Amino acid sequence: MSxxxxxxxxxxxxxxxxxxxxxxEDAAPGEVLLKVSGLQKHxxxxxxxxxxxxxxxxxxxxxxxxxxSGETLGVVGESGCGxxxxxxxxxxxxxxxxxxxxxxxxxxxxxxxxxxxxxRRDVQMIFQDPYSSLNPRHTVGGIISxxxxxxGVEPEGGVKKEVQRLLEVVGLNPEHYNRYPHxxxxxxxxxxxxxxxxxxxxxxxxxxxxVSALDxxxxxxxxxxxxxxQQELGLTYVIIAHDLSxxxxxxxxxxxxxLGKIVELADRKSLYAAPMHPYTKALMSAVPVPDPKRRxxxxxxxxxxxxxxxPISPPSGCxxxxxxxxxxxxxxxxxxxxxxxxxxxxxxxxxxxxxxDQAPGEEVLPEARESIEVVTIGEAVAEESPxxxxxxxxxxxxxxxxxxxxxxxxxxxxxSQASETSEASEASDASSGAxxxxxxxxxxxxxxxxxxx
Length: 453
Description:
With 453 residues, the chain is α/β, with parallel strands linked by helices. Among the domains are: 28-45 and 55-251, P-loop containing nucleotide triphosphate hydrolases (Rossmann fold); 292-389, no CATH class. It has 13 helices and 14 strands. It has helices at residues 83-90, 113-116, 140-151, 159-169, 186-197, 216-233, 244-250, 268-273, 278-285, 329-333, 379-382, 386-389, 393-452; strands at 32-47, 52-68, 72-76, 98-103, 106-107, 123-126, 204-208, 236-240, 253-258, 261-267, 299-304, 339-342, 345-347, 372-377. Helix 4 packs across helix 5. One of its GO terms (molecular function) is ATP binding. This is Peptide ABC transporter ATP-binding protein.
């Protein structure tokens, strides 16, 4: 990561900092770079002639987490749970309704445009759609060089040389400087977006679904590129994604969101080995395991019935209790706090999995038993007897030999039958030919005899 130094003639010109964003020293690896407390975003619902507010969509409703320097925080959850809104809030593309966002120890929650301008150098975002995030009227060179112009930065060697270097860093040809976005594939456009985000050497990069719109082969290339750039440049990532396999590959810690709240926050190994929240367990059960050795092994798939409740009027108490198979009366009335039950693993649940019950003695609600459906995968294969699966090869070989002999006998019978048929047909042809010859010679002999007389 870059460090603040005194400006000389050969250094990059840095715009003046505002009072709300005084420069500080870079966070050391492992120190808290970003801290979010009670973050909220409610979108108003207006109706009527006077457009009065009649309600609000609680997209994000109280988030508490931090991101350490040099790590990757993965955020997962269903569509509509507030992941993308959270990413836009911490980059200050949206104005928070409540809570605080601190970057390197200073509050940036309500900084204005002038106060956020120098902060844009340190916080960048990679957008979800590579097709709509690039201006089709601008060349690649113009798109990647825009941050330098907006920040008044003149790189050493010139803007064009730096843009070509960035293109080479993300795996594109520097000669593509004058091409337009429509001349590139989806994966190449996403690389252009990554190059633009890295232009000013940021400290924090928020990647909103960076590979969801790409093919599987291109996904692997972009994910590996992000990993390599993090090691080379010391970047800090907040990666938002649906694919749990991608999150597992790139993340150090993972936050699971449901209906605007974080229900579990843990390091990667703990979360995948022993998930605590029932919602996390249901998500993990849906992840296919590409291991041929596990073929035929029984595994349970937890299917949640019903839809996600509306964020306009979320359920009282625990927001997951309408789809949870462990819900009790306390889940309907009291909202669980996000507490640390194991080292490095926080969960917001009254009755967590793989941990002591936080509200013992409660009876499961009758409707909770019908909220899910457990499907056993691989049951038919697993119920086969071991003797049948480990049967010796000799009976099979004997059966194959008998089948081959039977086939040879059938072929020999068909051949003999065909030869007999051909011989019979030849004999009949010969007899008919002889009869025809005798019939033809009879009248000629009679005429010859009469002529002699």
